[in-house]
Amino acid sequence: MAAPGTKAKGRPGQMSASGGTRAIVAALGANLAIAASKFVAFAFSGSSSMLAEGVHSLADSGNQFLLLLGGKRAQREATPQHPFGYGRERFIYAFLVSIVLFSIGGMFAVYEGYEKIRHPHELEHWYWPVGVLVFAVIAEGFSFRTAIKESDELRGKLSWAQFIRRAKAPELPVVLLEDFGALIGLVLALGGVGLAVITGDGVWDGIGTVCIGFLLIGIALVLAAETKSLLLGEAAGLEEVEKIEAALVDGDTVTGLIHMRTLHLGPEELLVAAKIAVHHDDTAAEVANAINAAEARIRAAVPIARVIYLEPDIYSETEARRGPDPEATPGGPTPHTAGH
Questions:
Q1: Among 140-149, 182-191, 308-317, 329-338, whose mean pLDDT is lowest?
Q2: Which of 138, 242, 284, 287 is most buried, by the most CB atoms less than 10 A from its CB?
């Protein structure tokens, strides 16, 4: 039945860190400039919304540094201790971003807003925060536009929600959500400052700050959930799975696919493990040639499939009829499901 040898090829140490670098750099530049202007506005006006937004922009700047660092570290060569390379470092640093956004951005804003509601005071020099917020909207809009342009090249026909949920490279979804949250936060800050100026009641400034905090916490939880899924290990997308299945079976040397599993080792690094059906009277040399040819077809169809393990077996209708469990019935095919 199953042959004892398993073929594996690929260069697991070479992983691309190109996921949205331009968008990250654009967001970093915008956030550093905005953070500086917000802290200046806070110093002149005493607005808690400005302080919360300044910390928010500073946290976002740190997050962009984390994403760039993760992309750099992911390019390290594979080692005997980490034979599949370091591609998942990008997932780890994206998860750290969600923690920073939750703690430094969200929780600080909620605390600062709560204190301002308890001890409100009238805003001084209100034109400082208003001017800075208008400048920040323009700068964040530029950063958001860059992230959208970069994402559109990869999004295809997916909706934005589907793109964020399905993207394997975490950088662009992170920048998109951060920039979107920043723009909404600026509108909330502008509303809080505006109502505080109009009514003369500083409580509105605190309410705006609390709203910013809850917004950031919500975005952080979404990012944490998505990056957690990547850290646990996601399969290839349905389109890629279908391409691999079609490439595996040539109808001549490989007569069928018994079952298959895929796993992202990094955003642009895919592991493929499959049991394939071969003719019962093939020689060892013929089976080896069939496996080599199948690997070449897979890499041509899905270039990110860099680590491939193929196990030959003899397909058995009798074994296949015993049940759907591939381990219990090694001769049975795998039903089409989303999680290969």
A1: 329-338
A2: 287
What pTM, to 2 d.p., does this model score?
A: 0.72
What pLDDT is attached to residue 316? 64
* Residue 185 structure tokens: 């936060």
**Cα–Cα distance for residue pair 143/20, rounded to 1 Å:** 12
Q: Supply the DSSP symbol for 107.
A: I
What is residue 102's DSSP assignment? Answer: I
Measured between alpha carbons, how far is 1 from 23 in angstroms, rounded to an integer? 52
pLDDT at 6: 39
Position 190 pLDDT exceeds 60: yes
Q: Which residues face 153 on adjacent strands?
A: none
| Residue 59 to residue 181: CA distance in whole angstroms | 13
Is 332 or 133 the better-scoring residue by pLDDT? 133
Q: Where are the alpha helices (DSSP H) in 233-320?
A: 238-248, 284-301, 317-320
Residues 90/96/101/103 CA torsion (nearest 10 deg):
180
The confidence band for 335, taking pLDDT boundaries of 50, 70 and 90, is: very low
> Residue holding tokens 């019962």?
280
Q: Give the mean pLDDT of 220-248.
A: 90
Are 189 and 34 in contact, with CB atoms under 8 Å apart? no
pLDDT of amino acid 270: 93
- CA distance linking residue 292 with residue 295, whole number of Å: 5
Rounded Cα–Cα distance for residues 13 and 82 (Å)? 9
Q: Which tokens in the block code for residue 278?
A: 């071969």
| Beta bridge pairs of residue 311 | 275
Matching residue, tokens 């079952």: 259
User: Which 3 state secondary structure label does DSSP give 17?
Assistant: coil
Q: Strands 256-266 and 305-313: what pairing?
A: unpaired
Three-state DSSP state, 33: helix
Q: What does the radius of gyration of the chain's CA atoms come to, in whole angstroms?
A: 26
Quote the CA–CA distance of 112 and 13 in Å, as a whole number.
45
How far is Cα 82 from Cα 306, in angstroms, rounded to an integer?
A: 15
Mean pLDDT of 3-27: 53
